[in-house]
Amino acid sequence: MSEQLHVLRRCDAVDQNQDDPVFQKITELVPQEFTKALTDAGIGLWLWDVKADQLDVSRGMVQLTGLKQLYRGSRLDVLRDLIHPEDVETIQASTRRLFEDGLPYETLCRMRHSSGHFVWANTYGSLVRDENGEPQKMIGIVRVMDELTRTKRDLLHAEEMARLGNWTVDLATDELIWSQGVYKILGYEPFSFQPTLEFARKLRAEEDRAMIEGLIDEAVKKSGAFEYRTRVPHTSGKEVHIKVNGAIETGITGAPVSYYGTMQNITAEIQRDEQIRQSQKLETIGKLTGGVAHDFNNLLAVILGSLELAQDDIEDSGVNELIQMAIQATMRGVELTGSMLSFARQAKLKPQILDLHSVVEQTNSWIARTLPENISIETSLPTDLWPISADPGSTENALLNLILNARDAMAKGGELTIEAANVIIDSDFSFQRNDEVSPGQYVMLAISDTGEGIPANILKEIYEPFFTTKAPGAGSGLGLSMVQGFMHQSGGTVQVYSEPGVGTTFKLYFKALSRKIETPTIEAAKTKTANGAGFKILVAEDEKEVLEILLATLRQAGYAVTAARSGDEAREIFEADPSFDLLLTDIVMPGSLQGTTLAQLLRKQAKDLPVVFLSGYASEATVRRNEVRSEDIRLTKPVRRIELLEALEKTLASRVEPKL
Question: Which of left, alpha, beta for 329 (phi over 0: left; psi -120 to 50: alpha)?
Answer without folding.
Answer: alpha
